[in-house]
Design goal:
By secondary structure, the chain is of the alpha+beta class. Helix content is about 20%, strand content about 30%. The protein is built from one helix and six strands.
């Protein structure tokens, strides 16, 4: 994986697979940088909302991560 950067240092390339943090959140989100926004499967965040980001290796399988994230979300919803 790449080096963590702030949005003040620069932005990823269009369509680049990234992981990023927003606000005080410590667990990074995964998605792509598109149209000037950091986009996940569920939401889009403007660059101004992103604290830091890093480019993901091209070998990362997003489909495997999406299944794990969905399972986690369903368990969290059931617990609430």
């Amino acid at each position: 994986m790449g080096i963590w950067m702030t949005t003040a240092q620069g932005l990823p390339g269009e369509g680049e697979a990234v992981q990023f943090t927003i606000g005080a959140r410590r667990v990074p989100l995964r998605g792509r940088y598109r149209d000037g926004e950091f986009a996940t499967r569920w939401w889009r965040y403007p660059a101004s909302a992103v604290h830091r980001w890093q480019v993901l290796d091209r070998s990362v399988d997003f489909a495997a991560h999406a299944v794990a994230a969905t399972t986690f979300d369903e368990r969290m919803a059931a617990a609430m």
